[in-house]
């Protein structure tokens, strides 16, 4: 039987295999394309994925050795090195950097996966292996979409990400949601497909997941992968499939888009 850490690591491996297949075919023009992250070209997204892999690996190694999380100067040096690379060099090194991270996770024994607590490089409680891998999977999945959508406006999050990230979305929207963007309050019933889920979305002083409201201000129907992209701000009309709908006299899809400006 696999546990949460194993599931997350397996999903991250699938994501890396997916990204490696993409990167192998990129031309110089492909790397210069504008990505789904509006301020970055494709190579800059790859740079972020590469530097992030190195930071996560250093964080795990610090926990294993007892040295603790990497400090700010170390992290800045990683960013500077990746920023200083050419577009082609970013593409050349991104898979290897992520392979080192995924291989380290795959090599952890059962006791370590269960018991290790990993201090982070920012103010937050330590994570276990499942929690840290979930953080990385979230970042990896959304930024892989940023790469794919540069070539396909209808790109979606891959199945390897959706099943795992649905359980992480409640935490993520606490950081990404901006309740003040909505004029007033709203209680939305959310109905997802592929996989099917039903819950409530509350927009009040903050944004949170709730039980399905008995008298909702609207009903949002959407594929699960689009819901995840909504929460992360990757929800522009040109990236929204036709089956997404919001049945409401009080709130529109554009209102929800403002509530989730993205990162």
Task: Describe the protein in words.
- With 263 residues, this protein is an alpha+beta fold.
- The chain has 2 domains: 4-165, Up-down Bundle (Four Helix Bundle (Hemerythrin (Met), subunit A)); 178-259, Nonspecific Lipid-transfer Protein, Chain A.
- The protein is built from 11 helices and 5 strands, in the order αααααααααββββαβα.
- It has helices at 4-24, 28-31, 42-65, 72-83, 87-106, 110-115, 129-148, 159-165, 169-176, 224-231, 253-259, and strands spanning 186-193, 197-203, 207-210, 218-223, 245-247.
- It has a 5-stranded mixed beta sheet with strand order 3-2-1-4-5.
- The longest helix is centred in the first third of the chain and has 24 residues, at 42-65.
- It is globular and about 55 Å long.
């Amino acid at each position: 039987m696999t546990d949460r850490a194993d599931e997350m690591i397996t999903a991250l491996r699938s994501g890396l295999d997916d990204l490696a297949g993409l990167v192998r075919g990129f031309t110089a023009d492909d790397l210069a394309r504008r990505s789904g992250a509006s301020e970055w070209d494709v190579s800059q997204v790859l740079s972020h994925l590469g530097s992030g892999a190195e930071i996560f690996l250093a964080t795990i190694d610090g926990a294993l050795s007892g040295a603790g999380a990497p400090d700010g100067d170390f992290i800045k040096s990683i960013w500077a090195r990746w920023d200083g690379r050419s577009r082609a060099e970013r593409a050349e090194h991104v898979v290897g950097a992520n392979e080192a991270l995924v291989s380290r996770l795959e090599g952890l024994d059962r006791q370590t996966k269960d018991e290790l607590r990993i201090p982070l490089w920012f103010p937050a409680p330590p994570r276990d292996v499942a929690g840290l891998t979930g953080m990385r999977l979230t970042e990896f999945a959304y930024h892989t979409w940023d790469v794919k959508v540069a070539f396909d406006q209808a790109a979606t999050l891959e199945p390897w990400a959706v099943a795992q990230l649905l359980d992480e979305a409640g935490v993520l929207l606490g950081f990404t949601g901006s309740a003040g963007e909505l004029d007033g309050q709203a209680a939305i019933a959310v109905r997802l497909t592929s996989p099917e889920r039903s819950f409530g979305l509350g927009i009040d002083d903050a944004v949170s997941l709730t039980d399905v409201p008995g008298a909702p201000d609207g009903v949002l129907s959407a594929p699960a992968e689009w819901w995840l992209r909504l929460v992360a701000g990757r929800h522009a009309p040109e990236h929204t499939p036709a089956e997404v709908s919001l049945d409401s006299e009080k709130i529109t899809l554009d209102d929800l888009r403002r509530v989730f400006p993205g990162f």
